[in-house]
Amino acid sequence: MPDTPIAEDDAADAYLDADVYATSHAGGQHRPAAASVAGPPPVGGEGSNGPDADGSIASRRSDAAELDADGSIASRRSDAAELDADLAGLDALELAGSPRLEFAARAWAATWPKLAAVAIALGVWQLVVWSGWRPEYALPGPVAVFQQLWAGIQDGSIWEGIVTTMQRAFTGYALALVIGVVVGALVARVKVLRSAVGSMITGLQTMPSIAWFPLAVVLFKGGEGAIFFVVVIGAAPAIANGLISGTDNIPPILIRAGKVLGAKRLSLFWHVILPASMPGFVGGMKQGWAFAWRSLLAGELIVLTGRLSIGAQLTNARDLNDIPWLMSVMIVILVIGILIDAVFFGQLDRRLRKRWGLIDTAT
Length: 363
Description:
The protein is an all-alpha fold. It has 14 helices and no strands. It has helices at 5-25, 34-38, 50-95, 99-130, 142-155, 157-189, 191-206, 213-220, 223-248, 252-260, 265-276, 278-302, 310-319, 323-355. α8 (213-220) packs across α9, α9 runs antiparallel to α12 and α10 (252-260) runs antiparallel to α11 (265-276). The chain starts with a helix and ends in an 8-residue tail after the last helix. The relative contact order is 0.07. Residues 1-53 have low confidence and may be disordered.
């Protein structure tokens, strides 16, 4: 078909559009081909560069496709960033809250089960009293007992007994803790000592504390020394066994790593062995406190020192047949045990498990 003026105009427009596209991809530098000087290439005929023109157009189409792909990737990245920002905002809204409200919620979650247990125990106690199983002078109800307890709080006799008993408890437990740590560390690290006295420590731990009092009274002629002796002999073996058990569960690679880093005997124990054995050691400390508390109360019941302690008040209430006062002192002993476990050992155990990654902080 012969070339028409309309076809030539269309070819010229297409040529100019392609030339402008090439200019934009060349960084704004217009580099016209030699054919642009002479005008647009002929359409058809022998003088046309058909194959070259097709290759140039294909190349430019490829460049355009790459540009579109780059823009698509950038758009997708922008969308992903926006989505991450939205999700982070939702998480912040979900987790945000007042620290006071969160503390109150945790405190209430930890308190209401205990309050429910106390209410159930008081209800069962009152039901047993109403059943007539024992006369009320032998088994008084909660109202009479708490009235007597409130009277002891007001006149200060309860506080005097608590102060005396807790001073003995903390002093005796501190001595037992020092002795238990020293003995436990030596037995855990020295094989000869473990073979010699390892089983003896367990045997001492299994002995009832009350069995030591006749010997303690003879050795110390009664008094404070006999009480402290029984408290220490009851608590120290449990603490030592806890440290020994915790040391036995340490991965050997930790001790070897400490030695490679230059830790020697004392520094190795302080910086490697003791921190790694804390789970077992804390369990031994809790068990040691339980033995110390029982031994102390038994000692105050048996050994008379002339000081008004909780054990002495129990003895006086028994001798006077004052059962409401007797039961109120027993309630004080129970409350002290619960508070020591919750305030000291409970918090220590929780922090230890949190440090070891054993608590889900998101809950």
